[in-house]
Known about the structure:
This protein is 35% helix and 23% strand. The longest helix has 45 residues. The model has no long low-confidence stretch (mean pLDDT 87). A six-stranded antiparallel β-sheet has the order 12-13-15-14-16-19, sandwiched between helices. Strands 5-6-7-8-9 form a five-stranded antiparallel β-sheet, covered by helices on one side. It has three domains: 175 residues, ibrinogen binding protein from staphylococcus aureus fold, CATH 2.30.310; 137 residues; 125 residues, no CATH class. It is of the alpha+beta class. The chain is built from ten helices and 19 strands. The radius of gyration is 34 Å and the shape is elongated.
Amino acid sequence: MSLNCVEINRVLEELDLAGSFIQNIIQPSYxxxxxxxxxxxxxxxxxxxxxxxxxxxxxxxxIPKNDKPLRFNEFLRSRIKGAKIVSAEQIGLERIVxxxxxxxxxxFFMYIRLWSGAANILVTDGDHRILDAFFRRPxxxxxxxxxxxxxxxxxxxxxxxxxxxxxxxTFNEKIDRWYGEHAETLSREALLEEARRRHxxxxxxxxxxxxxxxxxxxxxxxxxxxxxxxxxLMAYLHEIPPRAEFAELADYENDNTPIRIPLDPALSAxxxxxxxxxxxxxxxxxxxxxxxxxxxxxSVIEQLDAEYExxxxxxxxxxxxxxxxxxxxxxxxxxxxxxxxxYRKDDWLILVGRTAAENDELLRRHVKGSxxxxxxxDWPGGYVFIRNRKGKSVPLDxxxxxxNLALFYSKGRKAGTADLYYTQxxxxxxxxxxxxxxxxxxNEKNLxxxxxxxxxxxxxxxxxxx
Length: 466
């Protein structure tokens, strides 16, 4: 339900925006924006351009900021933030609200068109030349630099009336409450239903993957039978004919009970025995990794349940919408706090740069002079930093963790053992005319590290996923 022309006039009458100043602008989504105004009291004017829910009204709800700056929001903040609203009125019954804005010596017009199929916000200069638009539509001539002519006001025909909405309070309060509860695109019920569908879809896929992993683990737990089958085949090589599809042998470990072992006819008896040993070795070596995969999948399911619970208990539809948009964003598009890899262990922060660009970015913007720097001495590789904690010295166990990471993300990984040097960042000097990220250390100390797979696996549980 979009507002009709008479309802828009009622909203503007109650808002009484003339003489107010625009103190802030927040764009929570790609189809809505909020103006924070103040005259005698603070008012938040919410404008929604979503099809079927076009409206303007005051809201008492907290409007969440978008995770990244949006074009039109940044334009408004640079041009009309701090401007005075000289007047606010609807052009006839056209469902187009015109705000006349004054800032310093400049005059601006903001046209808010609340048409369900073609809603838009246009900001023009005093000559009605478009400075920018919420939605840029070249075919309509709604792009920067185009001359925009407002439509002529129509005569009042008395066809429209203000609809009765449930609840107490002003018409603005009733609209805000009604849209929060019933609007198709923004109601809490609709958003919760969308959240439920997404949660069930993702959780069912993860649960199915977990079942497969647990079945595979069950097979791996019986890996000894592959070795035993290989031993039996080697013990009875002389009794197994060529190109046999199976072998029935006496199990000497179980009172010579007959046992049937499937064979590959294309292989000899000795090659079939070797295939059993290979399956045994794969099962034994893969069991530990499989346990890690199962634990990781369970952790993801728990995180998914926690995110859904956070959405389910939230009352503000705008916040729910933001949470859903964030959860639906591909991991590759999420903004990272640090370049490279991030590990958190016992309140310590370890940063790992894997490339020259990541090393250089960490050095320039994310570490300080008292942080610890580690690097392999005779091998090219990534930089590892341990962020300093005031009044704390780096524990030896954490230093070995960082050393293993420095060796693992270097060309010396295959060697398994290497010398590292470490020093504080303030003792690093950039090398002139050298490749990006190259530094010359001083006051360094030596550390010999041997790769420890168990330590690296434990560190994986401390790594930030995003």
